[in-house]
TrEMBL record:
This is Ribosomal RNA small subunit methyltransferase G. It comes from the Bacteria. The lineage of its organism: Bacteria, Pseudomonadati, Pseudomonadota, Alphaproteobacteria, Rhodobacterales. It is found in: Cytoplasm. One of its GO terms (cellular component) is cytosol. Its EC number is 2.1.1.170. It comes from Roseovarius gaetbuli. The gene is rsmG. The keyword Cytoplasm applies.
Amino acid sequence: MSVALNVSRETMDRLETYAELLRKWNPKINLVSKSTIDDLWSRHIMDSAQIYSLAPHTVGHWADLGSGGGFPGLVIAIMAADQNSPQKTTLVESDARKCAFLRTVIRETEANAVVLNERIETLPSLAADILSARALGSLELLLSFADRHLAKTGTAIFPKGASWEKELADAQSKWKFDYQLVKSETESGPVIMKITGVSRV
Ligand SMILES: C[S@@+](CC[C@H](N)C(=O)[O-])C[C@H]1O[C@@H](n2cnc3c(N)ncnc32)[C@H](O)[C@@H]1O
């Protein structure tokens, strides 16, 4: 299954540049698993693009936690430029080699993004309007990050895999939040959770 990517030629070129750099760096620093590299577009780029499509395009500050090779955060920063959005994107990643890769792609694609080579837990609050994180941890853990880094009126967008129902039940015993479930249109996870109003139980 795939989602349509309705962007300008210039944005497609930027995404191609990103994909090329990722293929070049991946054997050295394992940005995505080797088994998914041939499927880069559907497994990673389209998957990230659908996360972008769930947020308003007037966002001031989008923060992506545990960005790794840049999914979804770097695709989101490139897509925001396509919309002429003033959005600033922050990518948080603890691995210095992955940060070097992310900064290289940002330079080559002129994306409006900054990379913080920090741990999410110790970083001062980012007060983000939108917070995303893919393949980073349980919903309970992600809500503790949202509690720290999301602005009061912000929205968290978390794609979740097969165990999402159990994660949701576990998280509800520790956190209060409102959520909306969106069916994923790509292969890598059945649902995307849109979450607001996070506070401790
Ligand atoms: C499984 S990878 C997922 C990467 C990317 N989001 C994706 O979906 O392809 C998780 C990434 O989060 C980073 N990470 C894990 N815990 C972190 C923390 N506490 N602070 C900052 N980065 C962290 C790891 O270094 C790794 O690159």
